[in-house]
Structure formats: structure tokens, C-alpha cells
Amino acid sequence: MEGVSDDGFSVHCLASGSSANAVLVACPDGALLVDAGLGMRALRRYAEERGVAPEAVAGICVTHEHGDHTAGAVPFATRWKTPLVATRGTFDAVVRADPYRRCPEATLLERSDETAVGPFTVRTFPTTHDAAAPCGFRVSWRGHAVALATDTGSVTPEWRDACVGCQLLVVEANHDVDRLRAGPYPPSLQRRILARDGHLCNEDAMEMVLAHTAEHGPAAVWF
Fold it and tell me: Which residues of the chain fall short of a pLDDT of 50?
């Protein structure tokens, strides 16, 4: 999936799912990765295919430390001297999980915070997931904005607020509750997925989007 505006602001979903997650946000002045669950070579290749050199990536925004969101984060950051943008809890967990214990440059944020990363304004908002200090990100450039929350068990008020004024919402829609309960997963995994700090079901994701668009008007949505 990808979206490109007339003035060069673009969002590209490089990977989504239980094996890997990565989103590339780009503008004429630079780019950002939101999560880096692909390997470093794949991240570089996919970025270059979209006209983005790896050295143009101003930061890697990391939502949480799970491997399908971070597999390539530290290698890419180390190779290209790209700062990680994360909460302190997420950053510490990512570094602890790195087999070489590399500690790349970092911009550390609270779970409700805002900073400039290259040409972009990056704002964090808390999510509920079974991780150290998970967050979602709102990335804006000039008049464009995208809000991304890919792993969360519930919709937080801060997430709803971060979506206001965004042209694109990237929303977790993880499962149908009835199919999950009738499916092959063991009860312990079902409970983890269904928990408030697990994953968002399709019905709750749709409710969130319908409530947002009813109040604020239409937006593009990637589930």
C-alpha cells in the first residue's frame, strides 16, 4: 500500500503482519521509518525502490520492542547512523535484545510527546500492548499528517486525539473475536490477543474509525 500527494509527501507500507512491520514516510526533504521489522538489506532495497536513499532516513520511530517491529532497527541505525526515536522503555528493551549490544543514537520521548525529526514533526501517543512502553506515532510535514497504531489492545483517548487533522490513519484490525475463539490457537494465546494489552479486534477498529470520521470528516484508512 502507498499514498503519494502532489507535493511529494508519501507513505509506503513496506510490510505488515506477524512476520514483519515497517512503514516508510517520505517527503522531498527526507524520510522516516516507522518500525523496522524487516532485515536491513530489505529495508534499504524497498526504500531505494521508492526513491529514498538509506542515508536520507532521518529516524526510525519504534512503536515497541517486539521483533516483528524491530528486527532491522539496530542494524540499519548502526550502519547508516540513523537515530532511533522511541520511549526510554522501548529503547532499552531493543538494545537488550540486540545480540551485539549495540547502542545507536537515540531520541527518547515520553509516551505523549512531540519533537522534530529531520523535516518532520513526530508526536507520540500511548497504546496498550504487552510491551515495555508502547506508543503510536503521528508524523506530519507541512499540511500532511498520518497517525499510526499497529499493535494495541484498546483505543486510547490520546490516539483518537492524534488522528484529528490526519489525511491517513493506519489502524490495527487484528482479528474477528468469534473466529479467534473458535480457531486453533490455545486458550493462553487467545487470552493474550483478546486482552486490553493485546491486539485490537476488527469491530473495535471499525468503531474507532467510524467515530472519528463522523466527527472530523473523511480520511484514508489502512487497516
Answer: none
